[in-house]
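Support reply, case 0932

Customer input (verbatim):
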Amino acid sequence: MIELLGLGETALRQLGFVAAQADSRCFLDQSAWRIIAPLPNPGKIIGVGRNYGAHSQEGGMARQEEPRLFVKLSSSVIGPGEHIVSPASVHKLDWEVELAAVVGSVMRNMSVSECMQRVAGYTLLNDISAREFQFDVTPPQTTFAKSMDTFTPLGPCIVTCDEISDPGNLDLKCWVNDELVQDGSTSDMIFPVGYILSYISRFITLDPGDVIATGTPAGVGHFMKPPRYLQSGDRVRLFCPAIGELHNTVE
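Our regenerated output:
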């Protein structure tokens, strides 16, 4: 997929043309295949913390003047239906539904509009977090807390930008065991997608296939009263009408 993205818009248009010509002979029975993460091994995954007004408010945190960035390791990526594996020493496992932007071509010190023209598309990302390593230790270990194996469910697909005209007006929802726990909109972002990309590109070159997780709305377990965390057997389901559904079970 990264190689395909690197070929640019022409290749994506050609792929769309081929797909449009497909008939029933091109389709397999669902039992014969499974969906994997659309980017199983992205070059970089960069996250933005506290980027929704309501999420900052629920955590008692002030609005930021610039994006708060962290890195997630690509080895943590899993796809739809795969299990989130909680290490035995982790007891504060939390969920975060996020819109993720997928970089389509190189971004280096670019403006907001230039960056938006280079986005390949969008997908869903569950920023699974071990809160004890994020909040209960000094100094906080955000990258470690969010990069453990299986802590980045990604998918179910990449929806190209021609299908999502306004990433700043998308509904995001998360259910845990059929209970709706997050129900927000990207319109509550403090820093919109284009600003985030432009800001990062001032300091870090973004390459095709890089994934930018743009933050989560209110409703994470850590800030519930009392706090609530994922347990073995819990089913987590993310949904965005423009992208689809991403579901995983905690092991």
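We compared this against your earlier run and they match. Two observations from our side: The mean pLDDT is 95. Residues 108 and 204 are 7 Å apart (CA to CA). Please reopen the case if you see a mismatch on your end.
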